[in-house]
Design goal:
alpha/beta; Rossmann fold; seven-stranded mixed β-sheet; 8 helices; disordered N terminus
Length: 219
């Protein structure tokens, strides 16, 4: 999530875009409130909508998500895919899994979700025989490069990669605000270089949310 509303673009532009996008209601609004109250990182609203648009526009049937949290992104991806779509998501926290199953179930989308319990670097090799249309990465920033290396072979040619938090509250392009952000910021700086120059990807980093990596697999 963005560290502050003007972290990436000018304050008045950010406020305008915030007003332009209709506020969520019902279950999604409840999930946003839960995430804020319990300090659970979830995708920004505009990123979540971007995911739903991507799933719908690409005709995705299978999505691999690395980092589920409370299932906020799952709901948007599953809605974009429609009936018969499947989100395979990786999550190590049993608490997050329980909350996700509750929220996704209440959304009527539980049959479109398969949860792989465990840490992503341990789970991904077990999925190596599967194929996906979309890959969404939103977990430990220090491990982003390894996630991409392990999951890219499972993405079909022409498939889409979406990566959240690549501007990291503006820190990747500026000063690091606290010592505990040093490792994650440096990892993201290095990942961004790899991402936009990857020989198998046509990639860009967009100033959407907290910085959104977007790529198509071309090789």
């Amino acid at each position: 999530m963005k560290a502050r509303i003007d972290a990436i673009i000018r304050h008045e532009q950010a406020e305008y875009l915030e007003r332009l996008l209709p506020a969520n209601t019902g279950l999604l609004a409840e999930m946003e409130a839960y995430a804020e109250a319990h300090r659970v990182p979830i995708a920004d609203r505009e990123v979540a909508r971007f995911l739903e648009i991507t799933a719908r526009s690409t005709g995705a049937r299978r999505v691999l998500e690395i980092g589920m949290a409370i299932g906020y992104s799952v709901i948007h991806l599953a809605r974009g895919m429609g009936e018969g779509g499947l989100v395979v998501t990786i999550e190590p926290s049993e608490e997050m899994i329980a909350r996700s199953e509750e929220f996704v179930g209440r959304a009527g989308l539980r049959e479109r979700l398969r949860i792989e319990r465990g840490f992503a670097l341990e789970v991904l090799p077990r999925l190596s025989g599967e194929t996906f249309d979309v890959l969404f990465i939103d977990a430990l920033k220090e491990e982003y490069a390894q996630y991409l290396e392990l999951s890219l072979p499972m993405l079909r040619a022409g498939g889409v990669v979406v990566v959240d938090n690549l501007l990291w509250g503006g820190q990747v392009a500026g000063e690091i605000r606290s010592p505990d952000q040093t490792a994650s910021t440096q990892a993201l700086r290095e990942f961004n270089q790899v991402f936009v120059r990857h020989p198998q990807l046509l990639a860009e980093v967009l100033p959407v949310g907290d910085g959104l990596g977007y790529a198509v697999k071309v090789g």
